[in-house]
Amino acid sequence: MNRLTRITAILVKLQSKRVITAKEIAASFDISLRTVYRDIKTLQESGVPIGSEAGIGYFIVDGYNLPPVTITEEEANALVTAERFVHQNAESSIIKNYASVLTKIKSVLKNGQKEKVELLESRIIHHHKNGGSPTSKFLSEIQKTITSFGLLDITYHTIYNDKVTKRNVEPLGLYFNDDSWILIAFCRHREEIRNFRLDRILELKTLPSTSEKAKSFSLQEYFNSQLENYS
């Protein structure tokens, strides 16, 4: 990678995150910290408003916009392939949102790239494990609730006793297991962290309150504690 290409890539990397450290940039491009500092200085001297905080990292000042991003053929192919995996997760809100963003990305492709993308789409097929019907539709809403530390009222169908109950929960995290999305949340009814399959959530309503537990929750620490309990 020549220096001009690398500096452009660093700018895209900066734009993709709120804050990024010099070590992260160095690791991403396999360069030294000294080279990172030199490249950042070059960007700043060229007029890119890059701020920095000691011990935290670099960031793009709000209001700055990158010129249109050029998508390579390989990147476009990766997105088309990823769409098949998105369909496999059987979550209607994510399928819809991914299709929307992919359409926007396709709109900036050159005509030759569009033809190749259409050809590749016709040569890749996906199979649903559940017969083709998305089994849940609340993932996007739950994701927004997690990032805003919000609360949810859910109507939940418990399979083992075939009961439908109302729960007030504090969403903490998500994971995908086999063919189902699982919500990790603090259940105020049970007063403990519980797992809820999204395909068993019948209704969902966001609440205006915020969760203090969600602000300090660590998904990695949670999984580590679960492993310790089973060891």
The tally of structural domains comes to 3
> What is the succession of H and E elements?
HHHEEHHHHEEEEEHH
Strand order of the largest sheet: 6-5-4-3-7
The shape, in one word, is globular
C-alpha termini separation: 46 Å
> Helical amount among residues, as a percent range?
40-55%
**Unreliable segments of 5+ consecutive residues:** none
Sketch the major β-sheet: 5 strands, antiparallel
Number of helices: 9
What would CATH call the class of the largest domain? Mainly Beta
- How many strand segments? 7
Mean pLDDT: 87
Sheet-strand content, in percent, reads 15-25%
User: What is the CA-based Rg, rounded?
Assistant: 22 Å
The assigned CATH architecture of the largest domain is: Roll
Give the helix/strand class: alpha+beta
The CATH topology of the largest domain turns out to be SH3 type barrels
Keywords: DNA-binding, Transcription, Transcription regulation
GO molecular function: DNA binding; DNA-binding transcription factor activity
Domain HTH deoR-type: 3-58
Protein name: DNA-binding transcriptional regulator
Account of the protein in words:
45% of the residues lie in helices and 24% in strands. By secondary structure, it is an alpha+beta fold. The chain has three domains: 3-60, Winged helix-like DNA-binding domain superfamily/Winged helix DNA-binding domain (Arc Repressor Mutant, subunit A); 73-122; 139-230, SH3 type barrels (Roll). The strands form two sheets. Strands 6-5-4-3-7 form a five-stranded antiparallel β-sheet. Strands 1-2 form a two-stranded antiparallel sheet. The chain is globular and about 65 Å long. The model has no long low-confidence stretch (mean pLDDT 87).
